[in-house]
Amino acid sequence: VSSPEMTDRKARASVIIFFMLIIIQILIGTQVRETVDELLKSGIDRPDLMERMSINFYIHRSYSILLLLVFIWLYRNNRHFADMRKDLQYTSVCVGAGIAAGVGLSYLGMPAALQPVHLISAILIFLFTSKMLIRLYTKPLVSRS
After folding, report:
1. Can you tell me the distance from the alpha carbon of 95 to that of 15, in angstroms, rounded to the nearest whole number?
2. Is-above-0.85 flag for pTM?
């Protein structure tokens, strides 16, 4: 049996870990986007972009697996908290959409229509995770009965 303070501390730690990983992923994704823009400006066609991507793309793609696993861990360990449930559900939709868009970008020749979906998903994940952090530091957690 753990105390409410210990439970809050564990929830905070799990959200902080996910939040830090998201920031790193966004920074790597920004570098990937810069590479895409440079390649497009140099005259490379979208379907040929994958052949010329830097190592950052492969790190970004592989890192998404880590993020998914950490998010599953975060979700499973915190879904019973009423204050976090909705944000976790919304975040899970955004994680799914972001990964689906990323897979589409990777395997469908970088279609321009998927870029905003991928970016907006990342922004929403960042926002929902920020909201959870703020909530965790401003009031104690309440478990669903």
Report:
1. 14
2. yes
Place of tokens 């009031």: 139
State how far the Cα of 144 lies from the Cα of 30, in Å rounded to an integer.
38
CA nearest 98: which of 78, 69, 118?
118
- Over residues 51-109, the pLDDT tens digits come to 999 999 999 999 999 999 999 999 999 988 888 899 999 999 999 999 999 999 999 99
Burial class for 126, CB neighbours closer than 10 Å (0-12, 13-18, 19+): middle
The answer to whether the CB of 141 falls within 8 A of the CB of 11 is yes
Token pair for residue 88?
A: 């976790």
139: DSSP letter: S
